[in-house]
Amino acid sequence: MRGDDQQLQSGMFSYVALEDRIPADHPLRGVRRLVDVVLAGMSKDFEGLYSKVGRPSIPPERLLRALLLQVFYSVRSERLLMEQLNYNLLFRWFVGLEIDDGVWNHAVFSKNRDRLLNQALAQKFFVHVKHQAAGLMSDEHFTVDGTLIEAWAGQKSFRRKDDDEAGPGGGGDFHGEPRSNQTHASSTDPEARLYKKSSGQEARLSYLGHTLVENRNGLIVAAMTTQADGTAERDAALLMLHELTRKRSGRITTGADKAYDTRDFVSTLRELGVTPHVARRQNGAIDERTTRHPGYAISLSKRWLVEKPFGWLKQIGPLKKVKLRGLAKVDWLFVFSCAAFNLIRIPKLQVQSKQRTEPPAATWPSVADRKLKTTTLRLSLRFIE
Q1: How far apart are CA 12 and CA 90, in angstroms?
Q2: Same structural domain for residues 202 and 278?
Q3: Between the chain's N and C termini, which has fewer beta carbons within 10 Å?
Q4: pLDDT under 70 in the chain at which residues?
Q5: Sign of the CA dihedral running 162, 165, 171, 177
């Protein structure tokens, strides 16, 4: 029988709770539990950002949950994020809004977000997320690498520093003109640098994002952003490893590609108590003292783990071309997105770890197996007789 499609009057009430509409096995349920624990631990940090008097702002917990959704679902703007929050029940449930709660204006949301756009808060959020991965990360073996983050600035904004005639939006034919970061700067984002990672590629106004990944499950242990230049990757790696080894007594290993095989970098790592498992290049600093050990080949085979976060951050996350300007804001977005990557991975890894540690459930033999065992036993008794 054909169903009736007549819509005479829309329902005025709903008797199904928002919690009941979300499937019990939805991936965001595990993420939501982790986020609630993380935000509860940051309550005192949020208190210092707000005044004791005045109109209530958007709760920072809800604001950060909404920003996580923007990363998870590749929502390209705050305007579209507010549109989704208006009719998407999954988004409302994750943020903490009821069905009848009003949605914020996109400009108000952006204004409140700017209060949280600081590097210290992003690092605290990242550290709290990392604490939820206790038991899932290796504490001895790591891999480091960097990736290019295209800045929100065009090539025509890259002008001579002493050129005061053209405004920020002025055009110009720069073909054939020698340009460098020493003589030129972007009028749109002055902190961006013209850079390319390898020969044959186009130089773009960019920043460099750096991650330190552990080699067991590929979770991000440390993250930071720097201006793009030839030594930024090695300098950032030393800073992250120094912070990691500062409270440790034993040695650790760190894998890296050939760009890190320089004498200064390798010698500094050894001073920090880090064994450099760096890919060798001709006339580099890595020799047989390092490569003869089996652990060196294992570290090189784990180097692909550091590429997985970069692929997710650019394909799913907002880092293929950032829409924020300035090193501080780009660093906030990069660290926050790295924390989002860990939040997606941790619940899945916890389930896998639990399945490995639980003993297999006892199973009763089937009827056919029992009959086969009985027949075999009877034949054995007859043979003995």
Answers
A1: 20
A2: yes
A3: N
A4: 1, 3-4, 7-12, 164-176, 358-385
A5: negative
| 250 and 280 housed in the same domain | yes
pLDDT single digits (tens) 192-236:
999 987 777 888 999 999 999 999 999 999 999 999 998 999 999
Give the per-residue pLDDT at 169: 44
- Looking at the fold, whether 91 and 188 belong to one and the same domain comes out as no
Dihedral pair phi/psi, residue 318, rounded to 5°: -100, 20
Task: Write the CA distances from 187 to 149, 159, 209, 229, integer angstroms.
Answer: 18, 7, 22, 19
Same domain? For 144 and 76 the reply is no
pLDDT at position 206 is 95
Place of tokens 């002025």: 170
Cβ(128)–Cβ(41) below 8 Å = yes
Which CATH number do you get for residue 313?
Answer: 3.30.420
pLDDT value for 27:
93
Neighbours of 151 (CB within 10 A): 28
> 240 and 149: one domain?
yes
- Given a contact cutoff of 8 angstroms between Cβ atoms, the answer to whether 71 and 318 are in contact is yes
Question: Residue 49 has what pLDDT?
Answer: 83
Residue matched to tokens 């939006």: 169
Bridge partners (DSSP) of residue 321 are: 150
How many structural domains is the chain composed of? 2
Picking from 278, 303, 326, the residue at the C-terminal end of a domain is 326
Q: State pTM to two decimals.
A: 0.86
Q: Whose structure tokens read 């990392």?
A: 130
d(CA 241, CA 237) in angstroms, rounded, equals: 6
Name the residue range of residue 264's domain: 138-158+180-326
Helix, strand counts (H, E) of the chain:
15, 8
Please check whether residues 146 and 258 belong to one and the same domain. Answer: yes
Whether 188 and 325 have beta carbons less than 8 Å apart is answered as: yes
In the chain, which residue ranges form alpha helices assigned H by DSSP? 18-21, 27-41, 43-47, 60-72, 78-87, 89-95, 106-115, 119-131, 232-245, 263-271, 288-291, 294-301, 307-315, 327-357, 367-384
Residue at 86 is within a domain: yes
